[in-house]
Amino acid sequence: MLLEEQGTPRNVREKVQGMIAQLKEPGEERLKADQLLSQLDELQSDVNIPSYIRTQLWSVSSMLENME
User: Fold this and answer.
1) What sign has the CA pseudo-torsion 37, 65, 55, 16?
2) Residues with Cβ < 8 Å from 8, sequence gap 6 or more?
3) What is the DSSP-derived secondary structure letter of residue 8?
4) Rounded-to-integer distance, Cα 54 and Cα 25, Å
5) Residue 57 and residue 54: Cα distance in Å, rounded?
6) 64 near 37, Cβ under 8 Å?
7) Residue 4's pLDDT band (boundaries 50, 70, 90)?
8) What pLDDT sits at residue 38?
9) How far does CA 43 lie from the centroid of its chain?
10) Hey, CA dihedral for 51, 6, 32, 45, is it positive or negative?
11) Residue 33: CB partners within 8 Å, gap ≥ 6?
12) Residue among 67, 56, 66, 63 nearest 12 (CA)
């Protein structure tokens, strides 16, 4: 959804694409989720991100936290 959202800043779109690629790579799922949560935390702290995009990033973080 973030990738298709018109108002998503280019840097966020690029980072999300990179995160999706990381998820598709082989490896331990929990470790990948922890790494992605760290990256999402950095993105969420960017003051230039619109609040509705930040809310979507929080939703993604919640999904990753619930991964086993």
Assistant:
1) positive
2) 2, 16, 53
3) S
4) 25
5) 5
6) yes
7) confident
8) 93
9) 8
10) negative
11) 64, 65, 67
12) 56
How far apart are the C-alpha atoms of 9 and 50, rounded to whole Å? 9
What's the rounded Cα separation, in Å, for the pair 50 and 68?
Answer: 30
Give me the amino acid identity at 4: E
* 7 contacts 53 by C-beta, under 8 angstroms: yes
Token pair belonging to 55: 């809310």
Tens of pLDDT, residue by residue over 9-46, are: 888 889 889 999 998 999 888 899 899 999 999 988 88
**1 residue type, one letter:** M
